Design the sequence.
């Protein structure tokens, strides 16, 4: 039977301090036979006698006295180490590099960044902004935020929530081309195409109404693969666009963009945090994921 040396040290210390196997067993809520056999097995493992036993009391041998001091130092170090780790989990610190789409960085992270810093002052946050696919290991990225369907990979996916999407255009574009009343009207409109590494076709607009799904192939003169440019081109009147409502809230509120086809909403899009497979998630990644989930949840319920 394998000897649990940490437990054996704890039992030995209690016996030495109590000068009694029975008193130590009571203090530890263990059978006296377990306490006795553990100390015997410890002595057998160390090949040295630690305790002198008489019918009345137990006393330390010279080797036992030295071992007692060392056991206390070892157990104190273990307790100190575990305490530090517990504190690190409660108040994580260190570098955290996160890659995310431009829209999320500007519309979700930036308005709430000071709150994150107040909550986790010891995290050095590195924000990488890009819509491209990132090699986390090669580029030293701890985690990435992605929207939409995910490609199969070895990364661990932590769902953060969903974004409502909206179909919109500039008031100038709608004044020139009219306001579509149904997806069928889109044959007379153009859209800004968005292309990326996923399987979605660049010229598609997607809609859902009462469970009915509709995909419309749109005419268009230009395609982009970066969110901020996509929004800018919509503002400039290049055509219709479908965007996460959270990313264009201010533009909609100030009427720089106008939502159309609101009875035919685009499907909600999942927001996901991805990180490399590992047995334990680092405290910095864990708290960032929890914080992001709070933000996305508050957005979804708004």
Sequence:
């Amino acid at each position: 039977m394998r000897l649990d040396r940490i437990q054996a040290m704890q039992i030995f210390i209690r016996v030495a301090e109590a000068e009694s196997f029975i008193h130590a067993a009571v203090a530890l809520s263990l059978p006296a036979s377990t306490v006795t056999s553990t100390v015997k097995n410890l002595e057998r493992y160390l090949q040295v006698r630690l305790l002198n036993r008489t019918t009345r009391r137990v006393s330390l041998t010279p080797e036992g006295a030295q071992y007692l001091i060392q056991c206390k130092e070892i157990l104190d170090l273990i307790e100190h180490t575990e305490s530090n780790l517990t504190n690190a989990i409660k108040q994580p610190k260190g570098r955290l590099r996160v890659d995310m789409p431009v829209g999320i960085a500007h519309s979700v992270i930036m308005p709430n960044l000071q709150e994150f810093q107040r909550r986790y002052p010891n995290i050095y946050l590195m924000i990488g902004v890009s819509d491209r696919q990132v090699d986390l290991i090669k580029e030293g990225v701890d985690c990435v935020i992605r929207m939409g369907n995910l490609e199969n990979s070895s990364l661990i996916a932590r769902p953060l929530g969903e974004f409502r999407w909206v179909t919109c255009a500039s008031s100038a574009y709608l004044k020139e081309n009219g306001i579509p009343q149904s997806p069928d009207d889109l044959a007379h409109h153009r859209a800004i195409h968005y292309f990326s590494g996923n399987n979605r076709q660049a010229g598609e607009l997607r809609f859902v109404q009462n469970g009915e799904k509709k995909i419309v192939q749109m005419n268009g003169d230009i395609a982009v693969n970066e969110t901020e440019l996509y929004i800018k081109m919509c503002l400039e009147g290049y055509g219709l666009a479908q965007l996460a409502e959270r990313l264009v809230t201010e533009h909609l509120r100030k009427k720089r963009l106008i939502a159309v086809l609101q009875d035919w909403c685009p499907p909600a899009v999942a927001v996901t945090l991805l990180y490399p497979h590992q047995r334990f998630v680092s405290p910095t990644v864990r708290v960032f994921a929890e914080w992001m989930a709070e933000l996305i949840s508050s957005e979804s319920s708004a």
